[in-house]
Amino acid sequence: MSTSHKLNIKADQVLSYDIATCHSTDEIVSSIRDCITSLGGKDEPFIIFMDEGLPEAHRKIFLSTLEEQDIRFSLTLVPGDEDNKTLEYVLKVVDQLNAASAKRRSTPPIVIGGGVVLDVVGMAASIYRRGIPFIRIPTTLLAMVDVGVAAKTAVNHLGYRNRLGTFHPAVLTVIFQGYLDTLPVEHISNGLGEIFKLALIKDRVLFDLISEHGNTLLSNPGKSTDETDEIIIRSLEGMAVELESNLWESELKRVVDFGHTFGPLVEMSFVPDLFHGKAVALDCLLSLLISANRGMLEEVDVESVFEVAKKLGLADHHPGFDDVDLLWRSVEDATLHRNGHQNLPLMTGIGCSTFIQDLTKAEVAKASAQLGSRLRSPGVS
């Protein structure tokens, strides 16, 4: 009788990717050229996927700067609305990569736009030829501080947010605050929702910065100041620190899951009316009240957080957060995602946190009622 054998293959994957802040379109294009050169790229055409919602002025400057620096490209416009964040659209992008004869290394696609477009093209790059490098340029505040740092790509499926996805970071992400100058205030507030989350759960200094200078981003988002630069860079660095030590999510207790337990199903139930950053902020406020009800948080901190939320345009009541059954279904789905454990991050102070495993539906119901009462009152919303 032959002897059974067992082979074990073990390999370590070294991963490195860059996030660069720039102050002009010339700097953006120079960073792209340097990246392409590092990948062995030469005088070959590249495919650019551009968010069709990017304002004409930014579009023209970016494309003309590429032409001035003799970078050849073909251009494909991609819709940036949430309805197109689907596997079907990812496969359309794959078809375009194939038609453009994109190579395994030296002709990375370049994607410029909001978070939906970055996710869709990033996921296409992750599965085309089993993965090719890509370059991303986020043009919304939310995309800069959230998708722009992440190693993940994702699309929605079966009514769930980001149900399908891959780990495949862009080889280069370029952040340029100038792209924010044409965004409506509600989209800046949307991005501040993710910054607000980071501040509450891990960074008191960032909380103080957005409390004092968040209005500057809201009123003049395209203007770079020392304070707005610090807000954005501190957000990028804070997220990067959390991700780098747990990039593949082998540890499912993640403080950056704060703000992402109660809101995902609410958000998907109200697309496109409820923005992601607004849903995150409301999730944070609900979580804050759960902490306070458990005696984990001082009332002075609760009032301070609600006041900052109001300043940033994040304290608007939404009926989805009154639906306790929907909120609890979101908790149950998050628990499945965390391998059967709630792993619910809760604040113990501004910038401090812990995890709990014993949240009850009754607690959610109580906090939901409190949240609705606060946000409906004239002093808050």
Automatic annotation (TrEMBL):
<keyword id="KW-0520">NAD</keyword>
<keyword id="KW-0456">Lyase</keyword>
<dbReference type="GO" id="GO:0003856">
    <property type="term" value="F:3-dehydroquinate synthase activity"/>
</dbReference>
<keyword id="KW-0170">Cobalt</keyword>
<dbReference type="InterPro" id="IPR056179">
    <property type="entry name" value="DHQS_C"/>
</dbReference>
<dbReference type="InterPro" id="IPR030963">
    <property type="entry name" value="DHQ_synth_fam"/>
</dbReference>
<protein>
    <submittedName>
        <fullName>2-epi-5-epi-valiolone synthase</fullName>
    </submittedName>
</protein>
<dbReference type="InterPro" id="IPR030960">
    <property type="entry name" value="DHQS/DOIS_N"/>
</dbReference>
<feature type="domain" description="3-dehydroquinate synthase C-terminal">
    <location>
        <begin position="191"/>
        <end position="319"/>
    </location>
</feature>
<dbReference type="InterPro" id="IPR050071">
    <property type="entry name" value="Dehydroquinate_synthase"/>
</dbReference>
<dbReference type="GO" id="GO:0009073">
    <property type="term" value="P:aromatic amino acid family biosynthetic process"/>
</dbReference>
<feature type="domain" description="3-dehydroquinate synthase N-terminal">
    <location>
        <begin position="77"/>
        <end position="189"/>
    </location>
</feature>
<keyword id="KW-0479">Metal-binding</keyword>
<dbReference type="Pfam" id="PF24621">
    <property type="entry name" value="DHQS_C"/>
</dbReference>
<dbReference type="GO" id="GO:0046872">
    <property type="term" value="F:metal ion binding"/>
</dbReference>
<dbReference type="Pfam" id="PF01761">
    <property type="entry name" value="DHQ_synthase"/>
</dbReference>
